Amino acid sequence: MILLNPNRHESLCPDERSREIMRKTIAFFENKGLKKVKEDDHARAWYADFLEFVKQERLFATLLTPARYGESADCRWDTWRNCEFNEILAFYGLAYWYTWQVSILGLGPIWMSKNEEMKRKAAQLLQEGNVFAFGLSERTHGADIYSTEMSLAPQPDGSYRANGEKYYIGNANLAPMVSTFGKMADTGEYVFFPADYRQKNYELIRNVCASQSYVGQYALHDYPVSAAEILHRGQEAWDACLNTVNVGKFNLGWASIGICTHALYEAIRHAANRRLYNMAVTDFPHVKQMFTDAYARLVAMKLFSLRAADYMRAASPDDRRYLLYNPIVKMKVTTQGEEVINLLWDVI
Ligand SMILES: Cc1cc2nc3c(=O)[nH]c(=O)nc-3n(C[C@H](O)[C@H](O)[C@H](O)COP(=O)(O)OP(=O)(O)OC[C@H]3O[C@@H](n4cnc5c(N)ncnc54)[C@H](O)[C@@H]3O)c2cc1C
Which domains does the chain have, with CATH numbers? Predict the structure, then answer.
């Protein structure tokens, strides 16, 4: 079966370590159990258990460290296996997926940087089980990143001071490197630099979402940044920003597939066990039609995304097919996911 089946998971990964990661992650959630997963969701409980599991099993370190910076041979950034991991996390809960997703976004400007010292630092932090964050959005400007107000002012000693606020930033409460996008105060050039939530000039204001995730608002007040910490400047900073969004937002399609797969199973279980007018709800012709429609859309979502994963993997200045496929995964696969959920709502 093409859809994820946690009871008989058939990993598409060729190597044992990758298959082990998928297996153990499924086992973690199956042991936690649907009841507890739902309770934590309803109570908006912080997912400390999941982050501890990630740390113990070196999951993000293995999956998100490029081979060159990895401490062990199993580390590599591999879109193919990351897609599978995306799907599994979202199958069990979007909050678990989100902390992984924003770590990917946070690492984007770091791995795309020429700053070797910061890359080695990130690799070390991954080994230690840390998560990452992407500080792009600002409350007043939203999608309009040209209007970014976060500003980095040069100091006489060659260092910088950052001032400004970011909004909607996942993991802003615990990422030691929050990749922060801003502008140089003197030249107006774009810039990316890391901010550490533990520094006293980093003010964590609040969680702006009522969910298990921490989607933070933070402010930097004269936050000190050394020249050695700068990740990107000028056009490179802008390109790193958009390319990170390209890489990261592709995952939204996979999250959608994971969510819809679980919802489909739950809906079928409910409808098949519910008897009305002396028949199972799954026997109603319109319910059959809705399930068939939902299933067909979900399979199409997955087939399309599998194909697109190849174009993401092959992407280069000469192979730009991903430019067509990636936005469709990001937008069309996710909106089809909404369609699937709407159909399932009607059934249950
Ligand atoms: C749960 C959650 C988590 C998030 N996590 C992060 C994170 O970790 N890091 C981060 O940096 N950001 C994060 N974001 C912010 C997200 O990237 C922003 O929501 C996004 O930039 C849009 O900003 P906005 O929501 O303020 O919408 P606005 O910018 O106010 O846009 C409103 C509407 O205007 C229209 N619009 C705007 N621009 C365009 C355009 N160019 N073309 C066509 N229509 C347009 C669209 O219809 C859009 O829906 C998160 C957001 C949410 C909801």
Answer: 6-127 (1.10.540.10), 133-241 (2.40.110.10), 250-347 (1.20.140.10)
